[in-house]
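I'll show a sample.
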Amino acid sequence: MGLHERRQREKESIRAKILQAAFSLAKTDGWASLSIRKIADAIEYSAPVVYDHFENKEAILYEISINGFHCLQIELLKAQKKHETPEDQLTAIVDAYWNFAFKNKEYYQLMFGLGMQCSGKGLMKEEFSSFQDMIFDCTYEIIKKKGSNEDSACHSSHALFSAVHGLISIMMMRNDDIPSTMNKTTLDETVSAFIKSL
């Protein structure tokens, strides 16, 4: 291995350590308490080393949130592929989204700015819209199959996304006084009623 390759590999290794340390610190102390100094201490390097790899904390958060969106998309596609009808696909996609949110709470909070500023300032349009796009596709196919007004697919799918994201947000921000079973039941009933209404 040449000197250039060795330096490149070392650079990538440090970059990965920074991201891993930041995510680990967030899981322990929350995103609000994360700082460049804490990340530097965790990887046992000085703060300037962190700045050599990332412009600022926002850049680190953006990178982690993009990774979160990629992980989410993998789960959504996996759920979709298990079913053939748009109704079953829609139900499975929403379930996968719900499960991802609560199994990966730190990712979800960062991705959508729950209890904090959303990372990326609108720069991750493509990643952000993946779930909405999949909901729209299923909604459109159900409407087409039923012979309903296809023009309503956009509005209807946005309404479902808002309901799902709203339930998750409420659950995450007030999880001490709202039973998880109640929210999951509400989610299931919402999806079922949505499909019937198309």
